[in-house]
Amino acid sequence: MLRRDARKLRWSDVTPRPLWMNRRSLMTGAAALMASPALARIDAAASPYSTDIAPNSLEDITAYNNFYEFGTGKEDPARLADGLTIDPWSVVIDGLVDKPGTYDFADLVKDQPLEERIYRFRCVEAWSMVIPWIGLELAGLLNRVGVQSGAKYVAFETLVRPEEMPGQQSPFIEWPYREGLRLDEAMHPLTIMATGLYGEPMPRQNGAPIRLVVPWKYGFKSIKSIVRISLVADMPPTTWNMLQPSEYGFFANVNPTVDHPRWSQASERRVGGGLFGGREDTLMFNGYEAEVASLYAGQDLAVAY
Ligand code: MTE
């Protein structure tokens, strides 16, 4: 499902920005079926790692969010994230690295790839979107700071600032929000640190200024507004696993054959509708099986869920 023949040029490189944004926002549902030459040209411009499915609208992507630091309602982040200060922003990188330190956001992301990544995004709650991200591969960032041989996992933490993140005034989650990856997952080229979407800096409700995106895992792994990245020897604690270990494992790979204890994971609803009213079969590893299945060779995915 991934394109292999893509060129590096982006539509935005050859088209005035307002026109580009306008065309991109049209590329949802039935509009994507009307394959005009303009749309075909956009297709030829994306990363070889991009899916060729039409992205969700900017409205869908920024109005229906999970970001519990701003509340548990899907509309809470869009409504309440405005007050989050994202400049200045720095990220602590520590643990088993050659160059630990506090990195200014601008310094951290200076080697961003030019091309965007259009990824499928599958939430554990059985809805999905298709999102055009910009950012950088996590592997590039980790190589820059030098991963030491004892490191086996990467742990991530979100900002704690209850005065700007009202959801944090309630202790239902042991803040900070935490996530983790095994080192081979973190180094996979599909794994990105996203700094924006639709060619613009990251909206606050989507995890400004920098968040993780791991497209073959359930959305909760894609931790937002990151302030700390630690290279560690042991599997780190993660927020959803700490809250409810029988329902949320460390790996959280999208897997239609392993149901959540309270609902089926066999299908999903594409936010914003689309073909067949937006209901479609969930794909193994969210459609990235050819790229990532080998990472789990020999693991029983019903146990390592
Ligand atoms: N990161 C933090 N810090 N806090 C959160 O509550 N929610 C996760 C993930 N990252 C969450 C988070 C979940 S459950 C999902 S589905 C995705 O963010 C949603 O990303 P989106 O709102 O950009 O679509």
Describe this structure in words.
The chain has 305 residues and is α+β, with helices and mostly antiparallel strands. It has a single domain (6-296), classed as Oxidoreductase, molybdopterin-binding domain (Sulfite Oxidase, Chain A, domain 2), CATH 3.90.420.10. The protein is 21% helix and 21% strand. The chain has 11 helices and 12 strands. The chain has helices at residues 11-14, 17-26, 29-33, 37-45, 58-63, 76-80, 105-108, 138-145, 183-186, 239-243, 289-292; strands at 90-95, 101-104, 117-122, 127-137, 153-158, 178-182, 192-197, 200-201, 211-213, 226-232, 267-270, 279-281. Strands 3, 4, 7, 8, 9, 11 and 12 form a 7-stranded mixed β-sheet that branches. It has a 5-stranded mixed β-sheet with strand order 2-1-10-5-6. The longest helix has 10 residues, at 17-26. The two termini are 24 Å apart. The model is unreliable at 4-44 (pLDDT under 50). Bound molecules: ligand MTE. The site of ligand MTE has 15 residues, from loops.
Q: Tell me the overall shape.
A: globular
Largest sheet: 7 strands, mixed
- Cofactors and ligands present? ligand MTE
CATH topology: Sulfite Oxidase, Chain A, domain 2
Short account of what is shown:
Helix content is 21%, strand content 21%.
Which characteristics define this entry?
single chain, 305 residues, alpha+beta, Sulfite Oxidase, Chain A, domain 2, 7-stranded mixed β-sheet, 5-stranded mixed β-sheet, globular, binds ligand MTE
